[in-house]
C-alpha cells in the first residue's frame, strides 16, 4: 500500500519513486496528497491508514 511505502521511501536517501494507486483513496478516510508531482508524507500519528466505515462494511469477511 502506497500509504505505508511512502514512509519507507521518505526515510531512504535516494528513493526515486513510489507507486501510487489513487483508486485506493475511496477506501481511506484521508488519502494521500500529490503536490507538484510528488507525494506528500502524511503527518498524522502512526502509519496514517484509516479505512472508511463503508470500506469495512463492503469488504468485511466475518
Give the spatial strand order of the biggest sheet: 1-2
Q: What oligomeric state do these chains adopt?
A: single chain
Helix content: 25-40%
First and last CA, distance: 23 Å
In terms of DSSP E residues, the strand content is: 5-15%
Secondary structural class: mainly alpha
Shape category: elongated
Poorly predicted regions: none
H/E series, N to C? HEEH
Q: Kindly report the average pLDDT value.
A: 86
Computed over alpha carbons, the radius of gyration is 13 Å
Total domain count:
1
Number of strands: 2
Describe this structure in words.
- By secondary structure, the protein is mainly alpha-helical.
- The protein has one domain (2-59).
- Helix content is 27%, strand content 6%.
- It is built from two helices and two strands, in the order αββα.
- It has helices spanning 2-11, 53-59, and strands spanning 34-35, 38-39.
- A two-stranded antiparallel ribbon has the order 1-2.
- The longest helix is centred in the N-terminal third of the chain and has 10 residues, at 2-11.
- The chain is elongated and about 40 Å long.
- The protein starts with a helix and ends with a helix.
Task: Tell me briefly what this model is.
By secondary structure, the chain is mainly α. It is built from 2 helices and 2 strands, in the order αββα. It has a two-stranded antiparallel ribbon.
State the main characteristics.
62 residues, single chain, mainly alpha, 27% helix, two-stranded antiparallel ribbon
Chart the SSEs and their pairings.
Elements lengths: L1 H10 L22 E2 L2 E2 L13 H7 L3
Antiparallel strand pairs: 1-2
Amino acid at each position: 500500500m502506497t500509504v505505508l511505502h511512502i514512509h519507507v521511501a521518505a526515510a531512504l536517501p535516494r528513493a526515486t519513486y513510489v507507486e501510487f494507486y489513487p483508486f485506493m483513496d475511496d477506501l481511506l478516510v484521508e488519502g494521500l496528497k500529490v503536490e507538484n508531482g510528488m507525494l506528500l508524507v502524511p503527518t498524522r500519528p502512526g502509519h496514517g491508514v484509516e479505512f472508511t466505515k463503508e470500506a469495512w462494511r463492503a469488504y468485511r469477511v466475518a
